[in-house]
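Hey, weird one. I pasted the histidine kinase sequence into the form twice and got a warning about non-standard characters only the second time. First submission, copied straight from the form history:
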Amino acid sequence: MNKKLFVLLVILMSLSLTGIIFVQVYWIRTSINDKEEQFSRTVTDILDKVAGRVEMMEMKDYSDRLASLVDSIGQPKSTQFRNFLFVDRDLNSDEILFYSHGILEEDYNITSTFFDNIGGEDDTTTFKNYTSKRTKAVFKEEYGLDGKSYSLTPIQRAEKIGGLSRIDKAAWEDVFMEYAKTRPIHKRVSNQELELLLSQELKNRNIDIDYEYGVYSQGYPTKVRSKKFKFSGSKMYKAPIFKDSEGFTNFSLLLTFPKMKKFLFRSITGMALLSLIFTLVIMIAYSSAIYQLIRQKQISEIKSDFINNMTHEFKTPIATINLAVEAIRNPKAIEDKEKVLRYLGMIRDENKRMHAQVENVLRISKLEKNQLDISKDRVDVHDIIGDAIAHVELIVQDRGGYVNAHLEAERSEILANDMHMTNVIVNILDNAIKYSPEPPKIDVYTEVVKNNIIIKVQDQGAGMSKAVLKKVFEKFYREHTGDIHNVKGHGLGLAYVKRITDDHQGEVYAESEKGKGSTFFIKLPLI
């Protein structure tokens, strides 16, 4: 994939994911705000209803007490005044209409102790009941046969006694309200009444949440409040209570919900959770896709590098074999037995070299598929190290270097495959030789730590950067110093080392500093 196209694809995918996350967060916040606004409207309506019901209950309480006293007094003193009369005579029908509308006053002479005044004064307070009395009568004029006698015969009569108009009722309520303002608030409504009314209204609206309430007078607390109510803190809802006839009041009913945020969020938890899950799935899929794209790009580059290196590795032995074959075919050379044997030895060595490379690739492939059968026996680590050093000793001496063994571990027997473990040590030593620009200087140490033996291979070669150190055990990975073929190999040696060590329940890791050499550690469990 083209690098620019790859970068553009990553940017577009990142912008899309960022947009999706932003939309989801915005939707959740908007939903919470909508729920909060709806909740606020509902609570305000509840407060208004509760305040109205408290006022009605107080009014009804006084009305019931007044009615009870009126019933106990008996017949009140009645007086009629403001009696209006209307008389009309119809000449055609000889009918006379009488209509009267009067107001009856009933005096109950109830004392002011009815209101439970704090001062307890005994002066009398006049309670009077006013009712309207309406009378309608129609009479017909009749004369006797002699034409002289005269009488009025009633043909229709109706009498109505009822209450006064709404204006009179409003006057009574105004009187009551003015008096009620003089009473302490805790005598006008109790905590139990408020709690009952609030709980009923909240239940009717399907609001199951803890609440705190309080009645405040001009910003100051009263005795009517819940134990945990605080004026400051969470959001408060307020409604006027005990209004007078003009709509003014000094009292406010306050309501707070300490866990309102949790309640509101819980109401959209289902949809929010699904949204978050789907967003998380998209994020995981996106991250996985980006990782796979980057990984595939890296693998593609590594494989291209591997193919180039393998081509170079095979090119040299094939060229050598071709030259040896051509030399043997020369009639002069074929008669020289010593030359023929030397050329045949070259062909055999180069063939072994190619075979070893192919075997290394196949071995790693089998390890990847868990098809490599590794039998394990009791072996001595020191013997394995000695065999491995013997494999590379001539090469090191040829370059003017050395490999010194410092085998100081008191115990050295492990359960391992002799051949594979030897190859592990050889690969590490071979790596140290290849990446030593100067004559190789290698030291091998062993020591026992708890129930494990530590094999330490230390060189004074080129060393590795921290970035290289993180990838050095990956398959096909190789560090280059310029020309891709400056160091022979195909990036499989250390990958093989790690897989074999892991199979032996061991650990392998490295420490290195650029220009100061590297140290490889192999940790294996002792028997």
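That's the output from the first submission. The warning seems to come from a hidden character in my clipboard, not from the data itself. Residues 298-367 form a domain with the Helix Hairpins fold (CATH 1.10.287.130).
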